[in-house]
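Protocol step 4 of 6: structure prediction from sequence.
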Amino acid sequence: MQSTGVIIIGGGHNGLICAAFLAKAGLDVTVIEARSAVGGNAATESALDGARFNICNCDHSMIRATPIIDELGLTAHGLRYVDSHLSQVNVHWDGGPAWYLFHDLERTMDSIRHSYPSEADNYRRYVAAAGPIVRTIIDVANATPTPGAIAAKVLRRPRGASSIMSWSRRSVGDVMRSFFTAEPMRGPAVTTGPAVWGLSPEFSGTGLGAMTYALRHEVLSGRPVGGSGALPEALRAALIEEGGRVMCNTRVSQILCEGDRVIGVRVQNGDEIRAAIVVCAADPRAALVEWLTDAPPQASALIERYRTQPTLDGYESKIDAVINGRYRFRSVEDEGLAAAGLTADDAAHATTIVSVSLADMAAAYELKQQGRIAQRPMFFANTPSVKDRSMAAGLAATQDIFSMEILWTPYALHGGWDGSTEPQRWMQRFGDLVDVNGFGSFSDAVDRWRLMGPREYEAQFSMVRGYAPSFAGTPLTTMLGKDPELTRYETPVRGLFLTGAATFPGAGIWGASGRNAAAAILRSDGRSARARAAARS
């Protein structure tokens, strides 16, 4: 029987961040990861004979709004970013010129004045309203997760707190219509906000999703050199430097309890690993319903709540491809590039958001509920190898790697995924929007490709029905400490904590959940001392 002070279940970036902070504080920490490498959805992997692909998002923004990189010394462990001063290119299915969202507000204004001049004043008004919301949420997410600390952050920004309460009661469609008249100005914010959460733009309570443009002005996005996975690899190195351990290819089957507290875990081969603290950085439902054994009575209500929650379906897919030549969106005009001070390569490097009207988005949501996919899907497209050739080290100089996320592609596809030609259709529809030098169509330029769909995410990343759990509460939920296992990271079982995307502040490459969970563990009476005692035994 092995023993350690703290067990972290799941080697995604939040689990690794939590582990690294605990190890830095002197605790004996072991991360248990089911896959052969750390990173989870933040990982980068080799595929398609010489290419490297990010599992999910390649643009990192919110982690750069935290002190995590400096506090854990990740630069010393090889983490380097290519800054994305151009945050995203915005293209609309209904036509019209592309417009460019920069970290710098005035460069964004120049682009809007060129492409949608009647919306320039509206955008300035939007930023004035959304900026305080973004700054308040960042402050709260970086605060020690106690009611007093969070309240202090909110009271520092009363205007932001008031706007949060107002927007959080509205639909994102309502918020965007209150600022903009042109659909190409409305759609991208919703596509990168509630649409990623799988929600219709007309759902009440989604209004805070409208803050995504303002977020880009507050935080400079970037891409790790070598891919998104450079972040979890740097975190792994920081953890090991502090004396922590990582066990890959190891799957937890049980979380063990004795009396009112956890005593460790059992892994699939039957071995037990004892620990005073267990932190689940994976799906909370799996931890509480499937793995927790001999749970104390005080956890019964929480376990039953998770047991009776409906199982949700995944709705996002990703095409990874090796392409010959460089594509260019037809709506990316030379005049618009010049007005924005950009080159064609700058636009090709940035993530391009292909959006639809709010009405079409609401209709696409209804199709998703029927297991069907819209004729004109929402796309996130990028070619990371344009400015980071390490992503295409095994490819010819004329080839690039291409990734495209597609919304909404239901797990329970009408007619089934086997034999479906949907992925080919998405590439054909994407080709309707772009030209590729030397090729008749985008599909002709694709050398080889793979699909990462809901079924693949389920099989490879243990995401039940391809669904990625994500914190669905509001800042008010957090301030009030509602669902404390998600907002305070502590469960009724002594020594059992939660972190990860399902806890505050939620999904994306953020890391605040891992940092906050570590602070909650270190603050808990007796727990850190007990973990140190276990480490010495």
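Step 5 (inspection) to follow. The longest strand covers residues 316-324.
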